[in-house]
Amino acid sequence: MELDGRVVVVTGGTRGVGAGIARSFLAAGAEVVVCARRPPEEPVSADGRTASFTAVDLREPAAVQDFFAAVARRYGRLDCLVNNAGGTPYRLLGEGGAQRHARVLELNLLAPMTASLAAHPWLREARGSVVMIGSVSGTRPSPGTAAYGAAKAGLENLARSMAVEWAPEVRVNSLVLGMVRTELSHLHYGDEAGIAAVGATVPLGRLAEPSDVGDAAVFLASGRAGYVSGASLLVHGGGERPAFLDAATVNKEG
Predict the structure, then answer these.
(1) What pTM does this model have?
(2) What span, in angstroms and rounded, lies between the C-alpha atoms of 143 and 137?
(3) Which residues are identified as catalytic?
């Protein structure tokens, strides 16, 4: 398969988007290591193959260094790091205080930087790549998740700078995600009717599946993207229909 013999680390790879990414890499033939603070409820598997799991807190630089050193010892190489771990609760800026918002920045921006720096020596040796998992929240206003949006904007810029500094040995790219259907979608969009209604606002008519994100990540990690670095690939189903089109009274029937 396309990534036979390659070794991939997916942070936050135990559920949701991260698990979908890990399954896509397994299906492409890679050896996959997923990490998170807690183990998955069941092993992350695809096509009869299973990802290995290591518990690590990405906000602890020493633990992150030890983790990547252990991966290199076990497999002898590292070809791709997917910085997927992240997330945020809904919290308005005036609520919770600056320290709570700073923790969101720490998880979504500083942790990917920490992981990338720790992985860099082995990625450079393998002439590998980093894939940042970004969000459309970093490219538009993000009320209720402002710190998350700011972190994702910073992550995309970080990726572009890393792509220049680490070339030509290591490629660095971003996937900029829109809405993805996961086991937690009901917490954001409601019941099945709510999820369908939200999906209908996307030009392609549905939310992304984790496998859609995973397939894009596999592409960026593969030789088919060998001349792609410093890029931001939009995985958002066409984005959002501009609100003014529905509000305007011109060009409407009846």
Answers:
(1) 0.94
(2) 9
(3) 148
